Amino acid sequence: MEQKFLQVFYTALFAWLLVSVAATQHGDDSEDDGVVGAESFCDAEECTEKITEIPIVTRSSHECTFGHHPRQKCTVHHVMLDKQARTFKTYKSPDSEQLYTTWNIVNIDKPFKCDRNVKHGFAFLFYYYKGQSNYFHLHYDTLIPLYSQLKDYMMEGELNSASDVLLLPSVETSRLKVIDWNTAAFTYEQDSPPIWMQMLSVFGPSSLFLPLSTAVWGSEDTVWSSVEHENVCFEQLHFGVPQVDYSDNDLIKDYVLFVRHQLGLADLPLPHAPKVGIISRKNRRRIVNEDELLHVSRNIFPTELIDYSDMTFRQQVEVTHSFTVIAGINGAGLTNCLFLPAGAVAIQLVPFNATNLNYKQFGILLKSRGHYLEWHSSEPDSSIKPPGGGFENADTVVNSNQFVITLVEALTLGINKNLIAGGI
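^ thats the sequence. predicted structure below, dont judge the formating
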């Protein structure tokens, strides 16, 4: 009886060993579905806890379309950020020269070992040069396209969880070149973030961001809690931002409402009377006769100079909402006219022969927000060019009579018309 029992036991044990060996061989031979072995990922005591983090790695793939910046926007499926190597890694993926060059992606033939898994990642660039950025380009090239890309995820609540979405801001070594892994753009004191991080924070807390910067990764005092993992794997990682239609009224107005809401400024009261603002600039493309314009405008309605240079992002949005008309020379501060109250008027003052300026882009953007007027200098003598510079950076003497005509036209539009009619 005992001999028969042992025979059955050893037969069952042998069968179990055959099944185990076959399963192991099948896992090793798989090309498209490799599993990182638990023995290489955790100690015996930790395996029960860690086993859920072992990714099933399928062959990477990608699809690309036209982007805003860079010009190619790609979605890569199954990709890993290897922070130590300062590279993104794909697994047995077809090549894409522009994508792989700009973002430093390498293709490998081994499955990934991941410390963290994220459903959706968004890697994007923003303007950064010699420690500074540009308010217009931050909105135009980064925030608005990024908002258009993320709004569906925000509607589904996925931006509330860093396990669902992770944002990867970065800067370039130079335009359309490789990203700068050594940038200091993201190193700052927690209580004094630079303007670009104040703006990016409308998308969520710091835990939602993983800046592509070794300066951040190696700092013990970093404000970024998401940098602790070495290898981060993404089910989908979107490189670049999409092209957007800046004449899309719904997109631009939704973006404005989103920013106000995120800054806690959604319920600002509308102005009770017309109020004019003239944007003051410090370095280039200044209004030479600023005081004269202030004087003639005050003869019509209350008018203030606006200096945005030392304001936080939130302060700029809040202050702008208090005016019913804002006029300014082509330049970054004029972008704040996006945040004028409904029915208010934006006026762009365009210097003489400013063919190299982006005044048309400003016009399209601000028209999508609401009422918009343009004044163009037609007098060569009105421009005071810097030494060795051209008309695009010249200071301008604005014809005060023409300015008054433009201002009066603005006061017949939208909220100004209604406020004036109600006050009579």
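Residues 13-56 have pLDDT under 50 and may be disordered.
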